[in-house]
Amino acid sequence: MWTFSAPLMAYGDNAIEYLAQIQGKKAFIVTDRNIVKLGLVKLVTDQLDAVDIKWEIFDEVEPEPSLITVKRGGEAVAKFQPDWVIGVGGGSAMDAAKAIILLLARPDLEPDALSVSETFNFRAKAKLMAIPTTSGTGSEATWAIVLTDTVLNRKLGLGTTECMPDVAILDPVMVMGLPPLITADTGMDVLCHAIEGYASTWGTTITEGPGLVAARRVFEYLDKAYKDGSDLLARREMMYAATLAGMSFGNAMAGLGHSTGHALGAIFHVPHGRTVGLFLPYTMEYLINSSEETTAKYAEIARFCCGASGPDKECAKALVARVRSLAKAIGQPLSVKDCGIDKVKFDAEIPALVDRALNEVMTITVTRVPGEEDLTKIFEYAYAGKPIDF
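User: That's the sequence. What structure does it adopt?
Assistant: Structure tokens below.
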């Protein structure tokens, strides 16, 4: 038996006004200082004020939120005792909100003990809402939580199926000011979610549809959103693509691009979307070279999104080429070397990179599961920008 989880979604122009319909007395807003500075949190609090819902802002969330930050948020939410916890921001803010609402229900727990096997029943205290301000992580439509252990320098994949937001608000006004570089980084994250969710061995017919449509929208609109941030249609469609891709990979799991990208990001502190987008074409080539099943999946995406025709392998390779051409068009690195990482330092960290990738669940959701030797070669090829030929 399979299950498919998704939030109630209020989307489109003026979707932020849905806040005026919620029932409650107090809302705890989890965000970061930049989002507050940009005035995006005020768009939320204005709606809450209109219906006399008291609010408190926790704006200490940093990129890739730490266990320490989440613990401080847990202490603050325990004092406020809201009936809504609202994550406003990118994936970091939304993931932090998920962790913080779990600590509202279980203040005795340390953040790194938030296990998928636990039952928290946090809705007896509050509901969870996500309002994305980037078009990337899809965290508004997944139950996963990614936190950082700054002591051991590692990323932690946490969460429980309970953590699917009750409501996601998708209003393009929240992403209109997104700078080009962040648009590119987060947009490549969407594409990786869409392609890997569609091709995941844990996927089903139900998870394929959102991933396929999301990939098509990214190929059509990401370059436009990157070049003209005021293009409302491109911003809106990328926002929808991010959520659809989240629904796909969130219910099917991502793949090798994520496990290798996570490793690079954790050790060399490169933004998440940039790393997974970088490794996506290399890991696609690795799978094409040995898996007819995944090659056929990629061919389906290529035909639907890029108008490709011909044998499966030819179409799959055309998809890889399209991924690379899009990345190049929006200024994304095509190799690890392009990220400015020193070769000597990179080579010294390859054992650690391989170890981290091997310990990611996303390494086993593909049709060709690599071992240490193949992962080592994938990292080496990706540094040099060399197509995978093994």
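The mean pLDDT is 94.
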